[in-house]
Design a protein that fits this description.
The chain is an alpha/beta fold. The chain has helices at 6-11, 13-21, 37-42, 48-57, 69-77, 101-114, 127-139, 158-169, 182-194, 204-225, 240-251, 287-295, 321-335, 341-356, 377-386, 421-436, 443-452, 457-469; strands at 65-67, 86-90, 119-123, 142-150, 173-178, 197-198, 231-235, 258-264, 315-319, 362-365, 390-393, 404-407, 417-418. Helix content is 45%, strand content 13%.
Length: 475
């Protein structure tokens, strides 16, 4: 009988994951850092058309592309002459469980059933849990969802608690835990005890499921407007949304579309902190996931993460919590679409970005999500007040994560703040070298780092020399 202590279970994590995903990750390793990324993605074994067919079996995808005419008009009124791009949104709330996460869950659950697993498990406090539970119900598989739900005083955010209820409604068994390292331990033990499939957010199956979203955004925008999108705004958290959407756009032929990642600014808050856990009003699409997963994607629950956002980002911007709350109300009152906050993170960014663009250009927000009592701004703001957060109207630039949410008075106060991709690339390379633990860095590793940071071999070599000169990594 294998040991069940934390150390014993962590020591078996590679074997548990190999068994729970059915992928031999070791065969893709190429060096101290490099691995065969495209080879791993090919492990999915399905073409884009086949993924579409898998999704159509459970009514996933082919969601409406909606032009936000009233919001576009508002943007043009507050923009310089000739500026104010058309804004379109892909209404992913039309998927069965109400978000784009159905796309990534559909392929994972399909694979689980095809490979003969008795059930599926996912560790997530977000929409993905509901999506996996929904797909498992459609395929007649058992489902377990593990959530990080409460702080040490037993307080849980209304949005996370609502998502737990949604998972139970789909027939899933839900394990709700307190913030901390027990999440991964419990997750591994459940995988080992049940022999279920790990419906991880970070497998090639999951990312392949999102490629249909990017493909639909590209082809449907061309049909609707006569041109490919000039920019697509993608809410960024763990990187799968950016990666899958960008890969799908490329397969649609969008060679010049700018991929812009957008996150809610929660800088300064630590997601694993008992104190900070409930001092954020957004459970996903924020910098607490966005920056760590971009600068070291292999922190995931599988040995090699298929979500590699730095490969595909052309720009990374942040917006404030107050701006997203404002835009959530704006979408409902001007366009008659009451949607949850995740997609509205991208919409807030799109409003600012559209003001930079010409009127004949097109910017697409690539997702919406369902809304409900727990996701509604009033529930989130009431909970924030209970946690001692100041809520007021004014200039959103006065927002302080965890302390103050400032909701704009006027749409002209909505702005984006650019995150330096050069700094993120440098952080990624430092993290990669640190994880190499002194092993020899080969030319293959350098080429991989250039691809994975969307930079050049010269940039990577110079960055390595700088890090070594500064003593940040060993020579």
């Amino acid at each position: 009988m294998p040991g069940t202590s934390y150390a014993d279970v962590m020591a078996r994590r590679q074997d548990i994951m190999r068994s729970a995903v059915g992928i031999d990750y070791e065969k893709f390793e190429l060096g101290a850092i490099a691995f065969d990324y495209e080879g791993m993605m090919d492990e999915v074994g399905y073409t884009l058309d086949e993924v579409h067919a898998i999704q159509e079996e459970t009514s996933v995808g082919r969601t409406p592309l909606v032009e936000l005419r009233n919001i576009t008009e508002v943007v043009r009124r507050i923009s310089a002459p000739g500026k104010g791009a058309r804004i379109l949104v892909k209404d992913e709330s039309a998927n069965p469980s109400g978000s784009f996460k159905d796309r990534r869950a559909s392929v994972s659950v399909y694979c689980a059933k095809k490979k003969g697993y008795p059930g599926v498990i996912a560790a997530t406090s977000g929409n993905y849990g509901a999506a996996v539970a929904s797909q498992a119900a459609k395929h007649g598989l058992k489902c377990i969802i593990v959530q990080e739900t409460y702080d040490s005083k037993g307080r849980g955010q209304p949005e996370i608690i609502e998502k737990g209820r949604a998972c139970e409604a789909y027939g899933a068994e839900v394990h709700q835990l307190t913030v901390g390292p027990e999440l991964f331990y419990v997750f591994l033990r459940l995988l080992e005890e049940t022999g279920f499939f790990n419906a991880s957010l970070y497998t090639p199956f999951s990312v392949a499921g999102i490629e249909t979203l990017g493909y639909e955004v590209g082809t449907e925008t061309l049909r609707m407007t006569g041109r490919f999108p000039d920019a697509v705004i993608v809410t960024h958290a763990g990187g799968g949304n950016v990666t899958g959407t960008a890969r799908g756009l490329r397969k649609a032929g969008c060679r010049h579309t700018q991929v812009i990642a957008a996150s809610v600014d929660l800088l300064g808050l630590h997601m694993a902190s008992d104190t900070d856990f409930n001092r954020k009003s957004f459970t996903t699409g924020h910098t607490g996931f966005g920056i760590p997963f971009a600068t070291w994607p292999d922190r995931a629950d599988v040995p090699r993460n298929a979500a590699r956002p730095l490969r595909y980002m052309d720009r990374y911007v942040t917006v404030t919590q107050g701006e997203v709350f404002y835009v959530t109300e704006m979408l409902a009152k001007l366009e008659g679409m009451e949607r949850g906050p995740a997609g509205n993170t991208s919409l807030a960014a799109a409003i600012a970005v559209a003001r930079e663009m010409d009127r004949d250009q097109v910017v697409v927000v690539q997702e919406t999500e369902y809304t409900g009592a727990g996701k509604h701004p009033y529930a989130q703001l009431s909970f924030a007040r209970e946690m001692g957060i100041e809520i007021r109207r004014g200039d959103p630039r006065e927002n302080v994560p965890g302390k103050r949410i400032v909701i704009p008075l006027h749409p002209s106060q909505i702005h984006v703040k650019d995150v330096s991709l050069a700094d993120m690339r440098r952080s990624y390379i430092r993290n990669a070298l640190s994880c190499a633990k002194g092993r020899q860095i080969s030319a293959e590793d350098v080429r991989f780092l250039a691809d994975d940071t969307n930079s050049t071999v010269g940039f990577v070599e110079e960055t390595i020399r700088e890090l070594q000169r500064g003593g940040e990594v060993p020579e």
